[in-house]
Design a protein that fits this description.
It contains 16 helices and two strands. It is mostly helical. It has three domains: about 1-30, no CATH class; about 40-285, Cytochrome Bc1 Complex, Chain C (Up-down Bundle); about 295-390, no CATH class. The protein binds protoporphyrin IX containing FE.
Length: about 425
Amino acid sequence: MAHASQFKNPVIKWIDSRLPIFTLMRHEYVDYPMPKNVNYLWAFGAIAMIMLMIMILTGIMLAMQYTPNATMAFDSVERIMRDVNFGWLLRYMHSNGAAMFFVAVYIHVFRGLYYGSYKEPRELVWMLGIVVLLLMMATAFMGYVLPWGQMSFWAATVITNLFSAIPVVGDPIVTWLWGGFSVGNPTLNRFFALHYLLPFVLIGVVLLHTSAVHIVGTNNPLGIDLKGPQDSVPFSPYASVKDLYAVAVFLIIYAVFVFYQPNFMGHPDNYIPANPMVTPSHIVPEWYFLPFYAILRAIPDKLGGVIAMFGSILILFALPWLDTSKVRSCVFRPIYRWFFWLLLLDCILLGYVGSQLPEGIWVILGQLATFYYFFHFLVLMPILGKLERPLPLPESISKPVLKGGGPVAAGATASTMEKA
Ligand code: HEM
């Protein structure tokens, strides 16, 4: 029996009664109840999604002109920049787009950390998010190798070599990854194939991620559950228009980089063709990998460094269980809130350390910052969750618990406050 579609347009009704995709879209992006107090930090999921689309579109068009061959890759990119109509725009949109994509996702992750969006019942949303992050990192790393400049070649050499730290099978794994005995043409070819493939896998995991959000419901700055229809607004037009506005502002900032500072976030050495005979004096990854690079170098032992680096991301999978607090949002956690900001500073410090040569004070600072990173998640989080006494939670989003104001939800509308 056909699905009883509520759409009036005959074409839409015809399709929808056979395959209810329009009903599904209405359910997810029109009627979906959004907590009425979410702030602009909740727009970064939508921003990340737009960035993913821009990356795929510009990437496909670049691939039509790019040549994944070690003797031609560098020149093919220069040809895109100079001879292909608007090739410079495509390339700058793609390279700066990657950086802006990471900006959006890092803000999205820290939003989740601050408001406890990883806690029950959103554990799976969070874990799928980390899978997305890992996929993004792999995609960005392989993309950076494609222009076949000095940094491309040497970053690929350094990072693939990390696998040689694995006991017994390490060296054969590296040879297998390279498709030879050094980074070369087969490596470039497979990186291109995977760099083209992974974003589509990313789309699949992102769909699971956003579906999971809509099953359990969106968190909000107060971190409390919706108590009834008075606590939410329909996704459209309220959240969709707010998201669109945030997307527009974000795209303007992105455009400033693309048009006025297109090489600000890149490394000048990548305009030198790859040369296996000349190692750059200082090999640095793109800025969005710097904190992890600092963790890698903080441990004097190669295998230890590799374990710490991967561990710093994998530990995030355990977050829903490492955080023992009964309260989600930092708004009601007076002590933990400070440690959240300390963690953010620690990550920025790690990033800075990662950009410096590993000598003198930077070695010590890198080790201290790495220690603190793990200390935060493994020790502070479980202990503080038990010891800290959270502030009283409001009864509901619309009804703050204290008379005469109390913790009124950020962004509450005038009518909500009247009701309160
Ligand atoms: C391609 C990357 C990503 C995209 C496109 C994406 C997209 C989204 C969207 C559209 C939402 C719903 C709107 C919102 O709350 O912002 C969302 C929610 C969420 N995302 Fe992501 N996400 C990405 C990466 C991540 C990562 C790396 C993490 C964490 C490791 C993460 C954790 C979460 C959490 C916990 C929520 C629920 C937030 C809440 O309900 O308050 N996401 N994501």
